Amino acid sequence: MSDPGLLVSVRGEARRMVAPDYAQVDVTVAASRGSTAEAARAAAAAQDSLTADLAALGGVALDAAAGRRPLTWSAQSMATYAEHAHDKDTGQYQPTGQVTAAVTVVVTVRAFGLLDALGAVLAGREPVTVQGVTWHVDWDNPAWPLVRADAVKAALGKGRDYAAALGGTLRSVEHIADAGLLGGGSPQSGFTSSRAMRAASRGGEEPIAPSLDPVPQELAAFIDARFTADGVSLTRADQPG
Q1: Which of 23, 28, 78, 241 is deepest in the core (most CB within 10 A)?
Q2: Where is pLDDT greater, at 37 or 90?
Q3: What is the spatial distance between Cα 29 and Cα 21, in angstroms, rounded to a whole number?
Q4: Measured between alpha carbons, how far is 74 from 60 in angstroms, rounded to an integer?
Q5: Phi, psi at 75, each rounded to 5°
Q6: Do domains 1-19+139-204+216-241 and 22-136 have the same CATH topology?
Q7: 80 forms bridges with which residues in the sheet?
Q8: How confident is the model over 93-106, as pLDDT tens digits?
Q9: Can you give the residue ranges of every domain in the chain?
Q10: Which option is the CATH number for 22-136: 3.40.50.2000, 3.40.190.10, 3.40.120.10, 3.30.70.2970?
Q11: Sign of the CA dihedral running 22, 24, 25, 30
């Protein structure tokens, strides 16, 4: 009967920094009026004015046909609530009699040459607040196969180290899988860290355009690998290094 060899199971990890593919800008358009209906109409008008400016930059409303256009937007939610202000006499927040309507608009930018113009549009509007900017990498970015291959190489190198510590060598690959599929936990097999930048478009007499500078993103890949090793020896492992 042939020697089945020793099974060596390892986890390989690799990371790469890449340029982002697109930015997501989360914007709130808000208006306060004396009634819910008036506030909703004012917020809708402010939203229409904002999207008109985005259209002037070449943007389009996001839909199934938009694809990966240079600039898209979508209104994702709307809320109304009674406005409150701090009362110095009571120390409590009391209703002002005004109602605020707020619309959440998500702007996606792929043509980074538009960032300065977009920042100017957002900063120049009193009812608009930029809640945050996040940077993302597409699922099919060309760097993904590279970082996954790096993870396999890392696992192979670790397996060779283990086998060599026992005086043996790797003979064959038994399994390669996303981390967790061979047992022992289920971490992500890969991820894009969406590094965020906060930016406010209001405050101060003269609006200042937020700095929308692309932030490099870290891609990470994790894989589990199982190899067969030959020639291992516990005697070799007991020898001092």
Answers
A1: 23
A2: 37
A3: 26
A4: 9
A5: -85, 120
A6: no
A7: 101
A8: 888 889 999 999 99
A9: 1-19+139-204+216-241, 22-136
A10: 3.30.70.2970
A11: positive
Query: Which are the contacts of 129, defined by CB distance < 8 A and separation ≥ 6?
Result: 27, 28, 30, 200, 201, 202
Q: Please, are residues 95 and 83 in contact by the beta-carbon 8 Å criterion?
A: yes
For the domain spanning 1-19+139-204+216-241, the CATH number is: 3.30.110.170
Region for residue 153 given its phi and psi (left: phi exceeds 0; alpha: psi -120 to 50; beta: otherwise): alpha
Please report where in the chains the tokens 């309507």 appear, as a residue.
101
Residue-wise pLDDT for 135-194, tens only, equals: 999 999 999 999 999 999 999 999 999 999 999 999 999 999 999 888 765 555 444 444
DSSP secondary structure code for residue 114 in this structure = G
Question: 3-class DSSP state for residue 15?
Answer: strand
Nearest to 194, CA basis, from 214, 224, 171, 174: 214
Rounded Cα distance between 46 and 112, Å, is: 25
Alpha-carbon distance 70 to 148, whole Å?
Answer: 28
Neighbours of 12 (CB within 10 A): 22
Strand partners of residue 222 = 13
CA distances to 26, 75, 103, 190 from 106, in Å = 5, 6, 10, 25
How far is the first Cα of the chain from the last one, in angstroms, to the nearest whole number? Answer: 34
User: Is 135:214 a contact under the CB 8 Å cutoff?
Assistant: yes
